[in-house]
Design brief:
By secondary structure, the protein is mostly helical. It has helices at 5-11, 21-46, 51-60, 65-77, 83-96, 101-110, 118-122, 129-140, 146-158, 163-172. Helix 2 (21-46) packs across helix 3 (51-60), helix 2 (21-46) packs across helix 4 (65-77) and helix 3 (51-60) runs antiparallel to helix 4. It is elongated.
Length: 183
């Protein structure tokens, strides 16, 4: 059994100490709770996660589901897990990477952010028109073929941009948007 220092101190454990069965069970329970808490701290310190995602990851790592739920509640009580702040961070990262609205929604879904926060964090999501134009310029250069254009458009679609916004980007670069069939 792996014990953290706090658990050893709480139970007054020392070399050679004999324990009753009830005390041993209480020690196992406390060790499991502390293990879930420490694993939760490590996960949160590595990246921002939602409460649901943290609980799922703890269970996947082998923690007892009830202890995982308790660890998440403990982290929330310390304001170390906040779904709204995590949602804001995810959206800021998407904006910085030049992703469209659809890709930002996908990122929120992947992070298991509750949908009740989506509208609030996506309310001021920029159109990303400049990012689309910059992307097209960098991908196509001066001489490009229809195949190059198709690849660039497909990449923009994967980044979550809408057909209408991509057409606007093509028109801003004075490219023939008719080469781009709207699907």
């Amino acid at each position: 059994m792996r014990l953290y220092r706090q658990t050893v101190e709480d139970f007054g454990i020392y070399a050679g100490k004999e324990m009753q069965l009830q005390e041993l069970e209480a020690l196992r329970k406390a060790a499991g709770e502390m293990s879930a808490k420490m694993r939760a701290v490590r996960i949160v310190s590595a990246s921002s996660v939602s409460a649901k995602d943290l609980e799922r990851r703890l269970i996947r790592k082998g923690e007892d589901p009830s202890q995982a739920k308790a660890a998440v509640a403990w982290m929330e009580s310390l304001d170390l897990v906040d779904d709204l702040k995590t949602a804001q961070q995810v959206v800021e990262r998407c904006i910085h990477k030049g992703y469209g609205l659809a890709r930002a929604k996908q990122a929120l879904y992947e992070k298991r952010i509750p949908k009740e926060y989506w509208q609030e964090v996506l309310a001021d999501y920029p159109q990303q028109d400049e990012a689309i134009v910059d992307f097209l310029r960098s991908r196509l250069g001066c001489e490009w073929t229809d195949k190059d254009l198709k690849k660039a458009i497909d990449a923009l679609l994967r980044k979550g941009h809408s057909y209408g916004r991509i057409r606007a980007g093509l028109e801003a670069l004075s490219m023939d948007a008719d080469l781009f069939p709207e699907e």
